[in-house]
């Protein structure tokens, strides 16, 4: 009996919670709690998607996942195949994590690259993609992603780094926030290094080039 209940919880728990989060703000994520135990605070202010300047969604897609709007199941299959090919050739994979995959991880999982976590992430990603609209995935992601030590979501990041609301972000500030996502504990969006400034400039150029690939952000 307890095995059946456990199996039901594993199978039904995530989609039910995803459905809840389709209408309810995400109050806290596992990463927030882990960072709090590590000594970081939790600065997190949920705001609706229409209170985040559209430049930030476009910058994140330009930086992290160019084909986000065209992924029905939340995976970038060409990028995944490229990484499989690189691994087969003995090269180090560069990763092919999408925004939907990162959202699934933020909602349910712990940080790291261990195989178990990646398998569970791959199982959760299609559920997120199918149960949430693209705009809702972006809303959840932009409100929960880590922008700095103890700083989660667009509103807290905009206040901390630029002393303004997320609705008032400029394109340059959006690009500076997007560029730190691979390493938010070490990189500072408010005081970017020369390298980060160059990457932010590249992101701004890509935002102009993506065109229709950004249509789901509107």
Explain what you see.
With 218 residues, this protein is mainly alpha-helical. It has ten helices and three strands. A three-stranded mixed sheet has the order 1-3-2. Helix 3 runs parallel beside helix 9, helix 5 packs across helix 6 and helix 9 packs across helix 10. The model has no long low-confidence stretch (mean pLDDT 91).
Query: What's the overall geometry?
Result: globular
Counting helices, strands and paired strands, the structural category is mainly alpha
What share of the residues does DSSP label as strand, in percent?
under 5%
Q: Report mean pLDDT, rounded to a whole number.
A: 91
Instruction: Give the biggest beta sheet.
Output: 3 strands, mixed
How do the strands line up in the largest sheet? 1-3-2
Quote the distance from N terminus to C terminus: 48 Å
Fraction of residues in H or I helices: 55-70%
Summed up, the helix count is 10
In total, the number of strands is: 3
Low-confidence stretches: none
Oligomerization state of this entry? single chain
Tell me the series of helices and strands, N- to C-terminal: HHEHHHHHEEHHH
| Cα Rg | 17 Å
Write a compact overview of the structure shown.
With 218 residues, the chain is mainly alpha-helical.
Top keywords for this entry?
218 residues; mainly alpha; 3 strands
Walk me through the topology.
Blueprint: H1 2-21, H2 30-37, E1 43-44, H3 54-64, H4 77-88, H5 99-108, H6 115-131, H7 134-144, E2 146-148, E3 151-152, H8 154-162, H9 171-179, H10 194-210
Parallel strand pairs: 1-3
Antiparallel strand pairs: 2-3
Helix pairs in contact: 1-6, 3-9, 3-10, 5-6, 5-7, 9-10
């Amino acid at each position: 009996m307890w095995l059946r209940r456990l199996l039901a919880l594993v199978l039904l728990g995530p989609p039910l919670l995803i459905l809840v989060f389709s209408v309810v703000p995400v109050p806290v994520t596992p990463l927030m709690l882990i960072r709090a135990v590590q000594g970081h605070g939790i600065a997190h202010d949920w705001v609706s998607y229409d209170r985040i300047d559209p430049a930030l969604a476009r910058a994140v897609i330009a930086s992290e996942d160019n084909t986000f709007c065209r992924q029905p199941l939340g995976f970038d299959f060409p990028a995944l195949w490229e990484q499989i090919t690189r691994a087969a050739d003995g090269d180090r994979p560069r990763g092919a994590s999408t925004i939907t995959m990162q959202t699934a991880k933020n909602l349910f999982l712990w940080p790291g690259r261990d195989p178990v976590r990646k398998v569970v992430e791959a199982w959760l990603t299609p559920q997120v993609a199918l149960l949430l609209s693209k705009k809702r995935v972006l809303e959840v992601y932009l409100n929960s992603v880590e922008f700095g030590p103890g700083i989660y979501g667009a509103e807290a990041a905009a206040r901390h780094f630029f002393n303004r609301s997320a609705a008032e972000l400029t394109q340059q500030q959006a690009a500076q926030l997007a560029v730190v996502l691979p390493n938010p504990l070490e990189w500072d969006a408010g005081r970017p290094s020369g390298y980060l400034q160059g990457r932010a400039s590249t992101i701004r150029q890509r935002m102009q080039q993506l065109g229709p690939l950004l249509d789901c952000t509107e």
